[in-house]
Write a structure and sequence with these properties.
alpha/beta; 15 helices; Rossmann fold; 8-stranded mixed sheet; globular; 319 residues
Length: 319
């Protein structure tokens, strides 16, 4: 390993999610093709040798006990095998010991359960796959689980959402190390549609609506997405759904776990985000077209949802 290379150690186990391993590893490897010797990647597991991933594909790993020397970035993956891995006390002790001497500790998907089991997330903000956020919070009340973001950074600990979000996390780490331009070049090599910011939701607004929709709301959401510039207040949406405003608000909250107003905002932010990425229309025009009314309202919605202003978003992510 070249002296200048940042050593990335990926921790896996029997039943690990293949893409949790391959996504971040390839991201770092692609960065090292652009900036020679930027990273050296190693795969380790509790006992070493061949580990069979959840896809049935075996990967060769080094035993954790044989690892020597400094580690720059520790990446703990997830997958179906995380449950038996949590019973491996030696694994948890090793993660706890290593975390004290690495520059940053990361998890992908349900790998957050291993970090939490090792006590590395206590008092910290974290995320995991959307389907396991409630479980992680229930098991570890000292962890501030955030179910929406693609990845979360709290100090030197980074956690990501499920599966492909590990690529977004790795791209963010590359950007922190090598700069925005290199990260974008890596994203293009990987044919990633967009290097997503950490604050972006795990679900797109239309997908969230589709997953919870029934016969009464499915058509409504499609209409909303096509009429973002219309008056989408509760009274008008309720009339379109054939309910009173009070009944509509109650039914909507029960089925989707959110308010109609928040869904409208998410739909509008998502449409504006795509417009800023793909076009050169003035921000004022985008705000009007997407139903915000004025630029300031869109700015406030972007800061709430994405943590950046529309102009900053365009500067970072426009094609």
């Amino acid at each position: 390993m070249p002296r200048s290379a940042r050593r990335v150690v990926v921790v896996a186990f029997e039943g690990a999610q293949l893409l949790d391993v391959a996504g971040p590893a390839q991201t770092f490897a692609s960065a090292a093709e652009i900036v020679p010797d930027a990273y050296a990647i190693e795969l380790v597991s509790p006992r070493g040798g061949a580990i069979t991933t959840s896809a049935g594909i075996a990967l060769h790993s080094q035993p954790m006990a044989a690892l020597r020397g400094a580690i720059d970035t520790l990446v703990v993956v997830g997958g179906p095998g995380v449950t038996p891995a949590l019973t491996d006390r030696a694994l948890l002790r090793t993660l706890r010991r290593w975390s004290a001497r690495v520059r940053r500790t990361c998890s992908v998907c349900t790998g957050a359960f291993l970090l939490a089991g090792a006590g590395l997330l206590d008092g910290k903000r974290a995320t995991t796959h959307w389907g396991y956020c409630k479980i992680l919070q229930a098991r570890h009340p000292d962890v501030r689980v955030e179910p929406d973001p693609i990845f979360v950074r709290d100090g030197d600990v980074w956690t990501s959402a499920g599966v492909t979000a590990g690529i977004d996390l790795a791209l963010a780490l590359v950007e922190a190390d090598l700069g925005h331009e290199v990260a974008m070049r890596v994203a293009r090599r990987l044919v990633v549609f967009l290097k997503r910011p950490g604050g972006q939701s795990q679900f797109s607004a239309p997908l969230s609506a589709q997953l919870a929709a029934d016969d009464g709301l499915d058509g409504l959401h499609a209409w909303m997405a096509d009429h973002l510039g219309a008056d989408l207040r509760v009274e008008h949406l309720a009339a379109r759904a054939g309910m009173s405003p009070r009944t509509f608000a109650r039914v909507y909250a029960q089925k989707l776990g959110t308010t109609p107003a928040k869904t409208v905002e998410r739909l509008r932010v998502e449409a504006a985000r795509r417009a800023l990425e793909d076009g050169a229309a003035p921000i004022k025009q985008v705000a009007h077209r997407c139903g915000f009314g004025d630029e300031e309202r869109m700015r406030r919605a972007f800061v709430r949802r994405l943590g950046v202003s529309p102009s900053d978003y365009r500067a970072r992510f426009a094609g």
